[in-house]
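dumping this here before i forget
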Amino acid sequence: MALCSTVLCATSMAPRVLVVGYGNPLRGDDRVGWVVAARLGEILGEELCAVRTVQQLLPELAEELTHYDVVVYVDACANDEPGGVRIRELVTPQCGSQAPSTSSGVGRGSFTHHVGPRELLALCHALYGRVPRAFLVTIGGADFGFTEQLSPCAQHAAAQAVISLTALLQLEVSGKLAIKRGHRAAAQG
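structure:
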């Protein structure tokens, strides 16, 4: 049984954020996750933010997630309004709760070579008993043709997503630092 703690202890004082930008970088607006992830990495710096860009999410990423306090997934969405940005927190299993249901595919041996953000979190919980706080960002794309360029509306949406995520992650980081400092002070006192 995994122990649950409100304090996420890491080897460094700073909480760690992983930004996973995914999509096909050769299919126009599908590369927007890569663009947003890279920009967030530049703004937040490597001491607070790690960036991973992949064409698709794979089960092998689950172990890596356990090393971070917050994970942000960024992807293009052909079903959203072009240029629209949606940021939503993903509900994750709680520490010590029952194993994830088989509806997520965990425990049934049903993984193929692609999983979604929620399935990765469920796998993380099932295998390692730890789940980072997670957000899914989807950006509506207009052009998914064979090009390495973002459409103008995706460029604008990427800039908006970076502004919103920078503010969100700075709040996350400052809150976790305060919790960690309080925990360390109590442990020393």
